[in-house]
Amino acid sequence: MIRHRSRGFTLIELAVTITVGAVVVAFMAMFIVAPLEGYTAQTRRAQLTDDAESALRFMGRDLRAALPNSVRITSSGSVTALEMLATIDGARYVDGGPLANAALTLDFTTADGAFATSVPFTQLTLPWSSSTAYLAIYNVGVPGADAYQMAHVITPPGTTITITAGASANQNLVTLNPAFQFAYGSPQKRVYLVAGPVSYLCDTNAGTLSRYAGYAIAATQPTSAAALQAAGASAARVANDVSACSFAFSAGTAQRNALATLTLALTQSGESVQLLHEVPLVNAP
Fold first, then answer.
1. Entry pTM
2. Most buried in the list 85, 210, 229, 248, measured by CB within 10 Å?
3. Burial level of 124, CB count in 10 A (0-12/13-18/19+)?
4. Is the peptide bond before 156 cis (omega within 30 degrees of 0)?
5. Which residues, in sequence order, are CB contacts of 52 under 8 Å at separation 6+?
6. Handedness of CA 47, 50, 56, 58 (dihedral sign)
7. In angstroms, rounded to a whole number, what is the distance separating the alpha carbons of residues 171 and 152?
8. How many other CB atoms sit within 10 Å of the CB of residue 281?
């Protein structure tokens, strides 16, 4: 009978095998882990860039629709606050002239409760009526012509504004109850329909950028979430992971538009991106 002798691994052979395997795995890890980490970092940067781009574009859309000369910016501690008066629509009113119909013209010498437009509102479904919106004419953002003061250039809260179709395609009929006297005429005869204030708060301590709306116009700018919420504002988160932000506004001149400069930096897991947007704004009231 032939006997076969069984032979297993010796301890030295097992140790050598484990060592060689570990070296092979280590070398493989060097070629696999680094690309995976690079891919993860690239994906994270792309997501942060997309988030920052979306937030800045969202702010830019609100700024382009703001009442001219209504942008104001204040910093307090870790919070930078940007506020504007959001418009719903705009038109051009009919003013006095030698052949003008007095019933259709806007009178700046007394309280006037009815006038017509020569260029219509285009974003409304007529007839339209509201007691929560405002009409503004010639807001230049200085004392005596500042819409935030709720006098002279903007209708008071609670004014019922009604807009109906006129006799021609370009004519709308506007009524105000009670009547209101606008202090100044616009050189371009522009009248704006204002929804109310909108604020953005960038809080680098909390790492958030939030939008607030649905509160009353006030002379003093609210610069905290607590103040805005106390005024009845509703909040919506625009961006997280905010590590830095900077908002600046140049009012412009009669020869050039205003300019809002927005800088936003987002940071997550050691990856950071910083984007800058410049938003040209119409500042001719």
1. 0.84
2. 85
3. middle
4. no
5. 239, 264, 265, 266, 273, 274, 275
6. negative
7. 25
8. 22
